[in-house]
Amino acid sequence: GDVRFDLNGPSLDALDGTAALDVTRLRFGELAFSETRLRSEATDGVFQIDLASALRGVRLNATGRVAPFAETPTYDERTRFRSLDIGRFVENSESTTAQTSDLNGVLRVQGSSFSADEANLTATLELQPSSLNNAPVEGGQLIAQLEQPNLSVNGTLQAGGGTIALNGSATLGEVLRYRL
After folding, report:
1. Which of 5, 97, 145, 171 has the lowest tally of Cβ within 10 angstroms?
2. For strand 162-171 and strand 2-8, is the pairing parallel, antiparallel, or unpaired?
3. Separation CA 88–CA 179 (nearest Å)
């Protein structure tokens, strides 16, 4: 692979420059990425990111910005995925049914802080025409919003000429309270 950094600045939260990564195979624990290409340009500690990769047969393209070294890190990222087969990510055993899918869509995550106790974020999943266990799915949307300690989830799935809706919320803490 090839890794290149040309960054400078008075501190990490004020870096300017470029970074690039080209790797044929990249592994994080059990996750093996292939044909990974990352390009990033930093201005005053804010990195614009363009990433292309594949994971277990799924093509991933991500773009966005992240300020990882700011006092409170912020991020706004959009990942487009094609041909996601759930069966490649779920272990099949005697107690589970084999899952197959061909899912296409976009996942957007916007927020601040990487700490589980302090993070506030909104994650939006837009499902485009796909299939789940060979059944056609016209589309759908799922929005999860975390504003510590409150989590809300709202979504719809259009399939088979109908719509399934989900609305729920939870309060995170020592005692979990939720509503669906």
Report:
1. 97
2. unpaired
3. 31
